[in-house]
TrEMBL record:
InterPro entries for this protein: RibonucZ/Hydroxyglut_hydro (IPR036866), UPF0173 (IPR022877), UPF0173_UPF0282_UlaG_hydrolase (IPR050114)
One term of GO molecular function: hydrolase activity
Protein's organism: Halorarum salinum
HAMAP family named in the record: UPF0173
Protein name (Swiss-Prot/TrEMBL): UPF0173 metal-dependent hydrolase HUG12_11045
A Pfam match: Lactamase_B_3
Keyword Coiled coil: no
PANTHER family noted in UniProt: UPF0173 METAL-DEPENDENT HYDROLASE MJ1163, UPF0173 METAL-DEPENDENT HYDROLASE MJ1163-RELATED
């Protein structure tokens, strides 16, 4: 599984012949990628804030996944036709990937002028094997936490039952977790690899990533923290 961070919360996940793009937003200081260069099979949306869906119209030929409220909005406002509206706890098979929508603690208003809701905000657990109660040491699993605060679901459900090997956690503070709570999330999830995201895009979420690295170490977690450069990839095996 190859993971590429395009800044903010935008990730490109490639596994076998399947390409997933999460939260397309390329107007951020960490990417030089032209969205036209990408051709994802599926686009996963965690919630409807502009800094997560702004470039959806660049991928109208892809299949979009999100809450029913959000996918309906995309059809009406972005001309997106191929969608799957799902909800928390559900798992969908997307070619070579199994994608489980999990809870995120955040807001989810849509920029309609009427304060419309995009449904529940979410994160996604992406795996090459369907999740079951039987632990599978051969599976490879990546958790995109979306925009979220620290929540016990990470410790009680996502970590022990969905067993991610790696997690991308928001750590810019102000709108999401900051470095300290994000580090606790990494520890609770018991992952091998952790990636900070959702930082430095705007002045309120500017941080020192060294703080996140230090806080993860302070929890006693064995996770290796990878502070990626924009458009940098990591191979998860």
């Amino acid at each position: 599984m190859e993971l590429t961070w395009h800044g903010h919360s935008t990730w490109h996940v490639s596994m076998d012949d399947t390409d997933l793009l999460v939260d397309p937003f390329f107007d951020n200081p960490y990417t030089d990628t032209d969205p036209e260069e990408l051709d994802p099979d599926h686009v996963l949306l965690t919630h409807g804030h502009a800094d997560h869906i702004a470039d959806c119209d660049r991928f109208r030929d892809a299949h979009f996944v999100g809450t029913p409220e959000l996918t309906g909005y995309l059809t009406d406002e972005y001309g997106v036709d191929d969608t799957t509206g799902m909800n928390l706890g559900g798992t969908v098979e997307l070619d070579d990937a199994f994608v489980t929508m999990v809870r995120a603690d955040h807001s989810n208003g849509l920029d309609t002028g009427y304060g419309a809701s995009g449904g529940m905000p979410a994160g996604y657990v992406v795996s090459d094997k369907r999740p079951t109660q039987e632990s599978d040491p051969d599976s490879t699993t990546f958790y995109h936490a979306g925009d979220t605060s620290l929540m016990s679901e990470m410790r009680d459900v996502i970590g022990p039952f969905l067993e991610p090997d790696a997690v991308a956690v928001p750590c810019g503070d102000y709108f999401t977790m900051g470095p300290t709570q994000a580090a606790i999330a990494v520890d609770w999830l018991d992952v091998d690899h952790a990636f900070p995201m959702h930082y430095d895009t705007f002045p309120p979420i500017e941080i020192e990533t060294d703080d996140f690295v230090r806080e993860v170490k302070a929890t006693g977690s064995d996770a290796e923290v990878h502070v990626l450069e924009g458009d940098e990839s990591f191979t998860l095996e």
